C-alpha cells in the first residue's frame, strides 16, 4: 500500500499573470557542511523509500540563521582588522505598508549582524531629480558601504534610472545594469538577493543541478531572469553556475504548455506572483519545488490576511522530494543574502 507522507526538516529552516551532483564551488565552513549533510541524509532516505513520497520541507529560516553566523564572523573580522563597520544606506519613498515592512526587516537584520544602517525617507511626491541627488550624495559618502532604494517607486519616477544611478560597487540589490551585465557574463558581481537566495538554498541543501531540467515560472528582470542565469551557466566560470537546462515560462506560456514543461522538470522555481499557480498534477514525483511567490490573500476561515506562495504547498509536498514553504522559505534567505552583499561591498571598498 502506498503511503503519502511529508517530512519536515526543522528547525532548519513578478511578471507572470495568467555533469553531475551538487558541487561546492568554494571552501565551505563546517556549519555549511553540517547543513549539507542533514539534507544528504534526507536524500538517502528518499532513495531508499520506494513505496512512498516524502517531501523534505527546506527551512529558509534555519539556513538564514546559519548564514547569519557566517556574516557576523565576517563583520567582526573586518572590524578587528581596523576597518570601518559595514554600513547599509536605505532610501524609502512613499508610505507603502509592504515597503515599510521590508525596510524594517532589512535594517533590523543589519543591526543583529553588526552592520550599521540608516534610512532616508521621502514622501511619494518626491521628484526624480531630488531622489537622484540623494543617491549621488550617498554614492560619494565613504561611510556608506552598500546602498539600496526600496522598490517599487511611484509611477512618476523611472525605476531603471534610479537603479542605474547607484554606484555599481555599492549596489547591494544587484539591479545596476553593470551588475546585471556581469551576471549574464558569468563574472563576479553583486547578485540580486532573491535569486542569490534561491541559488544558496539549492547549494546548501545539496540539490543536484548539473544536467537537470529546470523550469522558472516568471521572467522578471529582478528575479526570474537572474535565477535562470545562475542555474544555466557554467560551474567552472568565474562566477560558477548550475549547469542546468533551464526553461523560462511567462504570461504568454499557455497553461497546458506550462504543465508539460513542469512535468518534465527536476526543479521547478515559481516566481510569478500568482497564488496556487503550481499544482500537484504539474509536478513529477521526486522534483524539487522552490516557491519564490509572496501573495497576500484573505483567509476564508479567519477573514485575516495571510501570506501564501505560488505553489499549492499542501498538495505538492506529497509528490516533491524537496519544497520550500511560504513564509519561512526564500524570504529569510533573501534578507540574509542582502546582508552578505553589504559585507561584500565593504570588503570591495578596501581595494578601491
TrEMBL record:
Domain Tetrahydrofolate dehydrogenase/cyclohydrolase catalytic as annotated: residue spans: 58-173
Gene Ontology cellular component terms for the protein in this record: mitochondrion
Gene Ontology biological-process annotations: tetrahydrofolate interconversion
Swiss-Prot/TrEMBL catalytic activity: (6R)-5,10-methenyltetrahydrofolate + H2O = (6R)-10-formyltetrahydrofolate + H(+)
Signal peptide bounds: none
GO MF annotation terms: methenyltetrahydrofolate cyclohydrolase activity; methylenetetrahydrofolate dehydrogenase (NAD+) activity; methylenetetrahydrofolate dehydrogenase (NADP+) activity
EC number per UniProt: 3.5.4.9
Entry annotated with the keyword Oxidoreductase: yes
Superkingdom in the source lineage: Eukaryota
The keyword Oxidoreductase is assigned to this record: yes
Residue span, Tetrahydrofolate dehydrogenase/cyclohydrolase NAD(P)-binding domain: 192-348
Pfam families listed in its UniProt record: THF_DHG_CYH (PF00763), THF_DHG_CYH_C (PF02882)
Coiled coil regions in record: none
Gene3D superfamilies, alphabetized: Leucine Dehydrogenase, chain A, domain 1, NAD(P)-binding Rossmann-like Domain
SUPFAM superfamilies, per database record: Aminoacid dehydrogenase-like, N-terminal domain, NAD(P)-binding Rossmann-fold domains
Alphabetical keyword list: Hydrolase, Multifunctional enzyme, One-carbon metabolism, Oxidoreductase
Name of the protein in its database record: methenyltetrahydrofolate cyclohydrolase
Gene source species: Gadus morhua
